[in-house]
Write a structure and sequence with these properties.
With about 550 residues, the protein is α+β, with helices and mostly antiparallel strands. It folds into four domains: about 80 residues, SH3 type barrels (Roll); about 210 residues, Aspartate Aminotransferase, domain 2 (3-Layer(aba) Sandwich), CATH 3.40.640; about 25 residues, no CATH class; about 150 residues, Alpha-Beta Complex (Aspartate Aminotransferase, domain 1). About 30% of the residues lie in helices and about 20% in strands. It contains 14 helices and 24 strands. Strands 1, 2, 3, 4, 5, 6, 7 and 8 form an eight-stranded antiparallel sheet that branches. The protein has an eight-stranded mixed sheet with strand order 9-17-16-13-12-10-11-23, sandwiched between helices. β19 and β20 form a beta hairpin. The longest helix is centred in the last third of the chain and has 31 residues. It is flat.
């Protein structure tokens, strides 16, 4: 009887019509949903095309929020049989409604802080409840989208992925976005794309040099080595935590330098004006590692939209999350999109999305390499590639996160300013990060340099340095914060050339990387820098606790 539209006796108590959504159990009971002739809330529409047997006049509406059980013997007439596809749609609607209710019941602590009244952030107990530096921030919509995608069971990148790529590309106002499985993979893919034979003389070859920042996250630099190129490290400014662009010329080697790749540190845009001018004068590629800076602007334009390529991470700590995930953004040149997609998808020459064939209309009409004419284009490979695609389920989550991104950005700015004002009395002991082109912070805002350029930061974290004359060290402060359950981090890898991996690399090959000038700033950052969270899950009570804890420690 499952799938039947039926009439029930005693219709006054339940309704004249119902849909049976289960087989009868051992006691003769079936699960049913009431049916109405008019659309109301929580209904699934049934049309005559949805029936495999019988007929109905006009659409009917199944109320999926009101399941009940009844004796099968109450059925007095069978009107029609609904297709399995439509029965599946009804069950899916019910499952997703319960999924949202589940998430609202158990995920309250993950809701954005600006929805604090609807979350469990009010349960915060200072010194007991952890204050993370970063965490997932979501609501029931992300969970519903994930379950919805899982129930479709497409799994590999598909329609959700294509939709996310289009929506994200529109947000940044760039040419294309290509989803990948992590931000580190995005960095590897972006640099690998610049080695393509399709770029002619501009391609990066083994032994060529790529300029980067010394104080950075390791997977901004690791891909340079992985493609056989040589990183050239430039010092970082302790005031902004970004590269000292005045040293870029010192790092340049005519005929060898091919690209600049570096990050906007903690959401603070590096000096794009100086960097772009340098790259244009020398014909260099520019890759922006935008993993920590989604939503930051330079002269009113989003970071990630200036270079030839840029990269994103969608790890839980970042501005929006898919769990794991990342993206390569192609800013202007369509040719780079084709190369990036090829390398992401095994190196294949074919550009058909998963599950599609012959979008070029000449699948068996190609003659490439030394293959015979007509060799299947789906199995022709123009690059030595990878498989770096994420799941479609991840993209479904990301699409919901993207809707929240404008609010997330504003909360990160607000949290940074709240911490900055609260910790202002400690300026003699702590040196606080400044946005690029800012000279000083005041309660009224920043005072800017005379370049005319302005930055607005979507802060990944609240960075500062412990002054050398302070009666405590950075490590002592970090240890104290940790003991009070306040999440904190040092600036990623600090001075990367001091990391064990790079020390060992230099032992093996003295020419594995090059240093341009001194790295005094990177050393200062390595020794004295720490950062706290600004993410949208932090409430004012949490931030007040952070400010109070640091103030008492510094004034003890």
């Amino acid at each position: 009887m499952k799938g039947h539209i039926v009439s029930l006796e005693d219709g006054e108590a339940f309704g004249l019509l119902a849909v049976v959504i289960s087989e009868a159990d051992s006691n003769g009971f079936v699960e049913v949903l009431p049916v109405e002739s008019k659309r109301i809330e929580d209904t699934t529409e049934i049309n005559k095309e949805d029936l495999v047997q019988g007929s109905i006049e006009g659409p009917l509406y199944v109320i999926t929020s009101r399941p009940t059980t009844t004796e099968a013997s109450r059925v007095i007439a069978k009107i029609g049989v609904i297709s399995n596809r439509k029965i599946g749609e009804i069950h899916k609607s019910m499952a997703l409604r319960h999924t949202k209710a589940f998430s609202e019941a158990v995920h309250g602590a993950n809701r954005p802080s600006y929805l604090e009244k609807q979350s469990r952030l009010s349960e915060f107990i200072p010194g007991v409840t952890p204050v993370p530096y970063a965490a997932r921030v979501f609501d029931g919509n992300e969970v519903v989208s994930a379950v919805h995608s899982a129930m479709d069971f497409w799994l590999t990148l598909g329609e959700e992925g294509a939709a996310f790529e289009e929506e994200f590309q529109r947000f940044l106002n760039i040419k294309n976005t290509v989803l990948v499985n992590s931000g580190s993979s995005a960095n590897l893919l972006a640099l690998s794309a610049l080695t393509s034979h399709k770029l002619g003389d501009r391609r990066i070859k083994k032994g060529d040099e790529v300029i980067t920042a010394a104080a950075a996250f390791p997977t901004t630099v690791a891909p340079i080595l992985q493609i056989g190129a040589i990183p050239v490290f430039v010092d970082s400014d302790p005031a902004t935590l970004n590269v000292k662009t005045e040293h870029l010329e010192e790092a340049f080697s005519p005929g060898k330098t091919k690209a600049v790749m570096m990050a906007h540190t903690l959401g603070n845009p590096f000096n794009l004006s100086a960097t772009i001018d340098f790259c244009e004068r020398h014909g260099l590629w520019l890759i922006e590692d935008n993993c920590d800076s989604l939503g930051s602007t330079y002269d009113g334009r989003y970071t990630g939209s200036f270079g030839d390529l840029s990269t994103q991470s969608f790890y839980p700590a970042h501005h929006l999350t898919m769990g794991e995930g990342g993206a390569v953004n192609v800013v202007r040149e369509e040719k780079l999109t084709t190369i990036v997609q090829s390398l992401r998808d095994w190196g294949r020459d074919c550009w058909c999305p998963s599950g599609k064939d012959n979008t070029c209309n000449k699948r068996f009409g190609w003659k490439l390499g030394e293959l015979p004419f007509g060799y299947d284009h789906k199995y022709i490979y123009s690059h030595i590639g990878f498989n770096l695609k994420p799941l479609d389920l991840q993209a479904a989550i990301g699409r919901e996160q993207l809707k929240k991104l404008p609010d997330f950005i504003e909360v990160r700015k607000r949290n940074w300013n709240y911490l900055r004002e609260g910790l202002a009395p400690l300026e003699g002991l702590l040196g606080f990060t400044l946005p690029t082109h800012a000279k000083e912070w005041t309660k009224e805002g920043f005072n800017w340099d005379d370049t005319g350029h302005r930055t607005e930061c979507s802060w990944f974290g609240f960075g500062f340095l412990v002054n050398p004359r302070a009666p405590f060290t950075r490590t002592e402060l970090a240890t104290h914060l940790d003991s009070r359950k306040i999440g904190n981090r040092m600036l990623f890898g600090g001075n990367l050339v001091r990391q064990p991996a790079f020390v060992e690399l230099k032992k093996i090959d003295i020419n594995a990387f090059r240093i341009a000038g001194s790295l005094d700033g990177a050393n200062r950052i390595m020794n004295d820098c720490i950062f706290l969270g600004t993410y949208p899950g932090l409430s004012e009570r949490m931030l007040d606790y952070v400010i109070d804890t640091i103030t008492k420690f510094c004034n003890r």
